[in-house]
Structures are given as C-alpha cells and as structure tokens.
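ok so for the tutorial part 2 we go from a plain amino acid sequence to predicted structure tokens. step 1 is just haveing the sequence, like this:
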Amino acid sequence: MISKILIIEDEKPNADRLIRLIEAIRPKATIIGILESIAESVAWLQAHPQPDIIMMDVRLSDGVSFEILDKVKIECPIIFTTAYDEYAVKAFKYNSVDYLLKPVEPEELQAAFEKLDTITAELQQK
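step 2 — the prediction. this is what the tokens look like for a chain of 126 residues:
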C-alpha cells in the first residue's frame, strides 16, 4: 500500500494540483516532501529513507530529472508527470510505473496507483 509519497515538481500550481489529487484518491497517504530542483532532490534522497513512490516531473528548473536518477540509486517506483511526451521511452529505463502527461487527470492517477498496487501485491506473493 502506498503510504509515503515524495513529489518532485518545480511548478507550484502543478504540485498543488497533484497534492489535491493524491489527497482525494489516497487520503491515507502522506506526502513526505515537495522538492523543486535536481540539487534539492539529490540532497533529500541522500539524507532520507526512500518513499513508497516518487511522483517526478521530467523537466525541472535546473535540468532534466534523469540527472537525479544518475546521481542517486532509486529503488522505489516512480510515476513521471510531465508535459513532454518525448521522454517516455527513457523514463521506462528507470523504475517507472507510469508516465502521465499534464494536466494529470484523476482517472489516470487512480489507474497508475492501481497498477502499482497490483505490481506490489504480485511481488509480495513471490
């Protein structure tokens, strides 16, 4: 079950929308951080335990979020949220569960969480 969610998003309106959607879809989940840059994300991930999932924008103010993944070993699943479809193939080379285009719709986020729940349940049965 998803309980700890980290958001990496540099645009406040998009972060706020994502928070509202998460609170509506997964009210028992806790958003443990909202990070706005590659530098801030790398520092946070090096200093804290990994969340259950990361909601990650692709383009951030200081570069492309794949730079985070090149600097820190991420073992938790990632749902990418972005306005750019050209990064989708690259995203799936990482721990990507889904790739949602902005504006993220509630049904798409719900489906991504359900997909993650299914994957998690299958892994626990092994």
